[in-house]
Design brief:
Elements lengths: L1 E4 L12 H4 L3 E5 L6 E5 L16 E6 L2 E6 L9 H16 L5 E5 L23 H9 L5 E5 L2 E3 L1 H8 L2 E5 L3 E3 L13 H9 L1 H10 L3 E2 H7 L4 E3 L3 H14 L21 H13 L4 H14 L2 H16 L2 H15 L16 E5 L3 H12 L3 E5 L3 H20 L5 H9 L1 E4 L10 E4 L5 H14 L5 E4 L6 H6 L7 E6 L8 E5 L6 H13 L3 E5 L7 H17 L4 H11 L5 H8 L1 H7 L6 H7 L12 E2 L8 E2 L1 H13 L9 H21 L6 H11 L9 H8 L1 H14 L8 H9 L11 H4 L1
Parallel strand pairs: 1-3, 5-6, 6-7, 7-9, 8-10, 9-12, 13-14, 13-16, 14-15, 16-17, 17-18, 19-20
Antiparallel strand pairs: 2-3, 4-5, 10-11, 18-19, 21-22
Helix pairs in contact: 2-3, 3-4, 4-5, 5-6, 5-10, 6-10, 9-10, 10-11, 12-26, 13-14, 19-25, 20-25, 22-23
The protein binds (S)-3-Hydroxyhexanoyl-CoA.
């Protein structure tokens, strides 16, 4: 990289040629530097010798316009080094009269993914956002941001300090801090409402969802969309600003306070957020900041934002969500598997056109794959196609898809009765009823039909993948792809690795997850894999509590207060109690009794709760309560009373206990994979990190004591976990635990 700090004098052409022309030129080459710094010193000019030692930026100056290219791969996170350099460039530009305008850009990288999240766990060092703000304020020169790919979080906040913003037409702009348990803490809560108004600012920052360049233009967040080349558009724009006779550059932060939408606006929003976000703190702090933006002078507003940000960043919510952010990304790093080993998949077969098969087909179609969906039942073929078409039409209606894209999407779909039609597919995903004999038959047939390169996947939620693989002549090409329902919505994908699944097949599964924008987590074979295995354990403790007198609504309330999206009884009703019975055929339990009484959940309008036809709201049921009491009495179980905290502790301990066994057995590579599964597939509160992270917050010794207390009550359910003792003895946190494979040990 060549950094040229030459002026706009035509003699000082950009680049190395200039070295020969200028009268004195010092070239500093520093070992291990990515940058060569060229400082031009011309006694005829009133220039200062400036040596900017740049590793993360590159500067080119032409005709008085300094283009500063941010270069901190892969996502231009505003880490300490980049921040310091941006600040150095801004302060230098204030005194360098050869620079008349500044344009911040990138070559191929995204503009910026915001502050460097890795730095959040330690003390903040170096220059920060307020320093940028002050440096821009001190400039009597226009600052223009050229946004490529995305400007997120602190990246967008930096943009909003500048006088102008121009985005590439495909760029996205957003403040996703709330997804890290934070608020924008780099001036964003003061600048965004001044640019787009209070209501739009609030909805953008509370959702954390980025907006398109077009929406950003319409709402006033940016000044222009680059019709062609972003860089030349920005330079032309800068030139026009300089050509104006009157020069007055105004940062959005210096606009007047934004208007309050209505007298009771903030009061109503507060009530809404209290109900919607329960214990999650960031949205309410965000609301307070945006309210402050409407009344406080800018400096007081910025101080208020800083206080809110600092309180959140040091809190538990942010720690849990930060952990979750990295845990989710770590899941795709599987020892011994490289993503570049993945096979190219373009056409996918889906066997089964029911709810799951149709959902998987939609997920694939939405991301550009061609799909052959096989539904053996002639009556359900049309039903399957219509279901998919309706879902696609909904996406068009919601503005997620254009009509013409929806037509080309449906043109890639073939719904057929003939399994032979999948012969040309690169991957076939079986999504039929959970019956081993049926699956074995299908896999044998697929094995003989499909090309040797074809990967055969099962969507089983818990059957033995090794048995399925053994039915084929290509067990190394057999994998589990356990989608969660609805498959086109839920982000989690358990990628099941059989005993002989090859690294290439696993890499293909991981790459497919990425292409589908799903969170793929590799798990080993065991009944229920990770998620369902843990939920069975959790649910058996729900039954334990019900039989001791807890009402379904008490359990659900306690769990929801903790932050779960849904209570276990309402969740079981939604997925169907008969599914539970089917998955646990050997074990007779309370659930069998409910199912035998016709109480299968929402589908029969009766489960733990009663339901009105067509409605999903659970109503307490005296019938279900009576059946539970009778069952407890016939099993000679005495009623007890439990506080909400005791209920939650027991259920969390059940998850953690099973999670520890899963780690002991090496079913996942690391504890954080369990947390990723629980947060993204089972509604565990994201700001609490996941069950294994939560165990560390409880304290591992406290956990051990609690588990031995439960063991003293019912030994069979709470077996010893030697791994917990080992982890406690190591002094390391559970959530950082990594499984060491036998190969790694030797
Ligand atoms: C903030 O800005 C606070 C300010 O308001 C105030 C401060 C005072 N930092 O996701 P990917 C890494 S808070 C550090 O696989 P994609 C990521 O870990 C920040 N690292 O790619 C991964 O590393 P690895 C607000 C980051 O293309 C690699 O980059 N911003 C950061 O699917 C690739 O990531 C956000 O919340 C970061 N900010 O998605 C944005 N971002 O390869 C968070 C990414 O080692 N980031 N990495 O696993 C995202 O949403 C997505 O990563 C993004 C790219 C859309 C950018």
């Amino acid at each position: 990289m060549v950094t040229s700090f030459l002026g706009d004098d035509k003699r000082y052409a950009d680049g190395l040629v200039a070295v020969f022309i200028i009268r004195l030129c010092a070239v500093f080459m520093i070992k291990n530097l990515h940058a060569v710094v060229i400082c031009a010193i011309d006694p005829a000019h009133d220039w200062k010798l400036t040596m900017l030692d740049l590793h993360y930026c590159e500067i080119r100056i032409q005709d008085g316009i300094a283009c500063i290219y941010l270069n901190n791969p892969p996502v231009n996170a505003l880490s300490e080094g980049l921040r310091n350099e941006i600040h150095a460039v801004l302060t230098h530009a204030a005194t360098d009269h050869t620079i008349r305008a500044l344009v911040f850009l990138t070559h191929d990288l995204p503009f910026s993914a915001g502050a460097d999240i890795k730095e959040f766990s330690g003390p903040m060092k170096g220059k920060f956002f307020l320093d940028f703000y002050q440096a821009i304020e001190a400039l009597d020169k226009p600052v223009i941001m050229g946004i490529r790919q995305y400007a997120l979080g602190g990246g967008l906040e930096f943009c909003m300090m500048a006088h102008y913003r121009i985005a590439h037409r495909d760029a996205r702009l957003g403040l996703p801090e709330v997804k890290l348990g934070l608020i924008p803490g780099g001036t964003g809560t003061m600048s965004l409402p001044r640019l787009v108004g209070v209501d739009a600012a609030l909805s953008m920052a509370v959702s954390g969802q980025p907006v398109s360049a077009q929406s950003a233009l319409e709402m006033g967040l940016i000044d222009a969309i680059a019709a062609s080349d972003l860089e030349s558009t920005c330079i032309e724009f800068a030139q026009k600003q300089l050509d104006k006779s009157e020069h007055q550059w105004l940062s959005p932060l210096h606009r007047p306070n934004p208007a309050v939408p209505s007298a009771d606006y903030f009061q109503k929003k507060k009530a809404e957020y209290d109900a919607q976000f329960q214990g999650f703190k960031a949205p309410l702090r965000l609301l307070a900041c945006i309210e402050a933006s409407t009344s406080l002078p800018i400096d007081a507003g910025l101080r208020f934002e800083q206080t809110q940000f600092m309180e959140l960043i040091t809190g538990d919510d942010a720690a849990g969500m930060r952990y979750g952010f990295f845990a989710q990304r770590l899941a795709s790093h599987v020892p011994g598997v490289r993503l570049d080993q993945a096979l190219t998949i373009s056409q996918v077969g889906v066997i089964g056109g029911g709810l799951m098969g149709a959902g998987i087909s939609i997920a694939l179609l939405m991301k550009g794959f061609s799909v052959v969906c096989v539904e053996a039942d002639p009556e359900r073929v049309a039903h399957c196609r219509t279901g998919i078409e309706q879902q696609v039409a909904k996406s068009v209606h919601a503005g997620k898809l254009t009509l013409s894209d929806s037509k080309s999407l449906l043109a890639r779909l073939q719904v057929t009765q003939s399994i032979a039609d999948v012969a040309q597919c690169d991957c076939v995903i079986e999504a039929v009823f959970e019956k081993m004999s049926l699956k074995l038959e299908i896999f044998k047939e697929l094995d003989s039909l499909c090309a040797p390169h074809t990967i055969l996947a099962s969507n089983t939620s818990g059957l033995d993948l090794n048995t399925i693989a053994a039915a084929t002549q290509r067990p190394e090409k057999v994998i589990g792809l356990h989608f969660f329902s609805p498959a086109h919505v839920m982000r989690l994908l358990e990628i099941v690795r059989g005993q002989v699944t090859s690294a290439e097949t696993l890499a293909t599964g991981l790459a497919l997850a990425k292409q589908l924008k799903k969170i793929g987590v590799v798990v080993g074979v065991c009944p229920g894999f990770v998620g369902n295995r843990m939920i069975f354990k959790y649910f058996s403790q729900v039954v334990w509590l019900l039989l001791r007198g807890c009402k379904p609504q008490q359990i659900d309330h306690a769990v929801q207060q903790f932050g779960f999206a849904m209570g276990p009884c309402a969740m079981a009703d939604m997925s169907g109690l008969d599914i539970w019975v089917h998955a646990n055929p050997g074990e007779r339990s309370l659930i069998h009794t409910l199912v035998e009484a016709g109480r299968c959940g929402q589908k029969t309008q009766a489960g733990f709760y009663d339901y009105t036809k067509g409605k999903k709201t659970p109503q307490p049921s005296s019938v279900a309560d009576g059946l539970i009491t009778d069952y407890a009495r016939s099993s000679a179980i005495q009623p007890q009373s439990f506080t909400d905290a005791e209920i939650v502790k027991r259920l969390l301990c059940a998850l953690i206990h099973e999670g520890l066994h899963i780690l002991e057995e090496g079913i996942v590579s690391r504890a954080s994979d369990i947390d990723t599964i629980y947060v993204h597939g089972y509604g565990f509160p994201i700001y609490r990190g996941g069950p294994m992270f939560y165990a560390d917050q409880m304290g591992l010794s406290v956990l051990r004591d609690q588990l031995s207390h439960y063991r003293s009550e019912a030994e069979a359910s709470w077996s010893e976990v030697p791994l917990l003792d080992e982890i406690i003895a190591s002094g390391k946190p559970l959530h950082k635990f990594q499984v060491v494979s036998p190969e790694q040990k030797s």
